User: Fold this.
Amino acid sequence: MVNTTLELQNAHACFGGAQRFYQHHAREIGLPMKFSVYLPPQALHGAKVPALVYLAGLTCNEETFMTKAGAQRLAAELGLALIAPDTSPRGANAPGEAESWDFGVGAGFYLDATQAPWESHWRMESYLTRELLPLLGQKLPIDLERVGLFGHSMGGHGALTLALRHPGLFKSLSAFAPIAAPTQCPWGRKAFAGYLGNDEADWLNHDASALMAAQKTAPYPGGILIDQGLADKFLIEQQLLPEVFEAACKKIGQPLTLRRHSGYDHGYYFIQSFIEVHLRHHASQLEA
Assistant:
């Protein structure tokens, strides 16, 4: 049983539900962690509701999705809770933690680091799967048997890899412009070398394309959804590599809808444009 006090930092009425921002002491991280939750009207009237966990990208925090994505209106209609954790520990004062925008603070990559000085606090995988989800199930009206996972960019990497590394924990899966093959791109190679060391065999355990290619059967027979903008500079710079994940899904028969959109970039105007499709994708699978 989780025994943690949630500190409510802020709350707002929103489409008949409640937008809340919390802080708590995270035992896995060893520091305070923040997260945000949108509770739809149904949750405020006694119902346990399905939930959708959103993992944000580099430089973002627990507020980014809730303030920029425009997801609450439809979440209220569908009866979906939305959960957005912060993207890394903060306040660890680890040497070099703020020297790069794509490593350290705001760049946890949703894994458990094994290398100094990161291994003490950069434990985002264990925090999310072993601590935050049980905490939410205990403290809030959320049905842990109906939890979906999605994310953007680094958070898309996190969504795909955590869903594959923890079978059965998440019942539905999607991503916006994910880092889909991190062992093959500069962002991923930098993060993995720093957090996991130089043994590239270890890196494959956190590469969504490698994990998918190793599956025996399709882990999400109901389908995975990915949206990708074709004017995304990080796609052009070969940071995202959705085609590698697409090939891995094809290899093992995993249904994948990979939608490529002309003119759309990497930012939240792109996410706003297609958030409805993602919420409906998850709602249909979580209800089923």
